Amino acid sequence: MTVPSLKSKEIKRDTETVTRFYETIPTTVQRLLVPSEDDTLSFEHVDITPIASQDSVIEIIQQARRLIFPGYFIQTRMDSINLGSFLCQEAMALFNRLSQQIVLSIQHECLRLDMPCSKCLESSHKTAFQFIQSLPDLKTILAGDIDAAFAGDPAAKSYDEIIFSYPGLFAITVYRVAHLLFELDIPLLPRIMTEHAHNLTGIDIHPGAQIGESFVIDHGTGVVIGETTIIGKHVRIYQGVTLGALSLPKQAGNKFRGKKRHPTIEDNVIIYSSATILGGSTTIGARSVIGGNVWITKSVPPDTKVMLEEPRLIFQKKPKGIQHEDF
């Protein structure tokens, strides 16, 4: 008779322990299926049409970028002979994927709000076609954004460097793609797009914001641009800038939803790092310069320079025998 080794006993004991854990998991799952009376809110998405796919929406962004910037974001050689064929195939693939995701997002919204049938399949194809028709104009606008970034940044050695590597341009590109869908009244997809860019760059631009041509976000980390923000032409902002809303009362979401809550920035304005500009009635006049770290909740006239008072530097002589500063 073989005597079980110490190791085999340990394996058996571990197996029994894991089995006990397995046996208790269904109880926890049942609690997930049947929330307790203390759970006032419970969210699920079952027994209804599938929701839009985040992975597919991200691929839509990549397809749009490949169409807008031919040859930049592919691994194979691109030349004038096969360019037309490639773009046609890419546009058709984008049309199919976008149509499918639009259908899912509309169905989700209709079921969520108990809306009458909107013939979503037919309208999704029409909307996807309108989106693709808008891409040439979008390409022109983005070319202006790239040129403005290059003209104002001595560190940029080429347009290619900006297209490939600048987080500000990536966030602006995704915003402009998402804004097209937002303007076409497509639910959910625009916000998935801009939050994807937010996750990658730290730049948070709501797809509902209205942003003019030749827009530049330099460095970019921490920038926030709210839903009802209006930005004119040739505006440049730096990292940490917030174009936001004033604090709202509790449960004020429905009351203020859809109303102007964020500032207006007129043409040719520069806003330096960590400036905070709040409120729907706040307007920064054309050609103004907003210095870093300022807090603004009232309108600023055109041609105004706003900055904090220059700090006073205090120089102290270090007493003999002191090895470090004592503040």
From TrEMBL:
InterPro entries: LbH_SAT, Ser_AcTrfase_N_sf, Serine_acetyltransferase, Trimer_LpxA-like_sf. Transmembrane segments: none annotated. One of its GO terms (molecular function) is acyltransferase activity. Keywords: Acyltransferase, Amino-acid biosynthesis, Transferase. GO terms for biological process: amino acid biosynthetic process. Gene3D superfamilies: Hexapeptide repeat proteins (2.160.10.10), serine acetyltransferase, domain 1 (1.10.3130.10). PANTHER family: SERINE ACETYLTRANSFERASE. NCBIfam families: EPS_EpsC (NF041874). This is Uncharacterized protein. It comes from marine sediment metagenome.
